[in-house]
Amino acid sequence: MKITTDGIAVGNQAQNARQAEKTSQRFADILTKAENGQPASVDKTSPSQPLFQISPVLLDPIHGDGLLQRLDKSLGLLESYQARLSDPTIPVHELQPDIDRLEEQNNQLQSDLANLPDGHPVKDLLNRSVVTMTVEIEKFRRGDFA
Fold first, then answer.
1. Rounded to two decimals, what is the model's pTM?
2. Of 54, 55, 124, 125, which has fewest CB within 10 angstroms of its CB?
């Protein structure tokens, strides 16, 4: 079976010709009205305010008490833990201090998460980070890596 695109090209050409005809007809109508002194019907839009009259957008500050720094530190601890966990020369029991630091950071982030209002831009990221750290801590505690 041979597939040809002749019909498709003809259909597109006919559609383009109809669209061009409509556009030229609208232009001809506007031109005729202008010659007769009639105002052309133009879409009305409201003028925009001058820039100096626009009030600045006041963004809600993202918890200025170091939330992002704690989150960054926690993610760094998680990366360090992952690197040490994948190192076969480090015994698993030597990872306990890493887990303790992760747990301490996780507790701080959980209290931060509880204090954030719903819809806060950082809340989803913080929630995902807390869940990830909690899962890693629990996997270590139950002996998945022993």
1. 0.55
2. 55
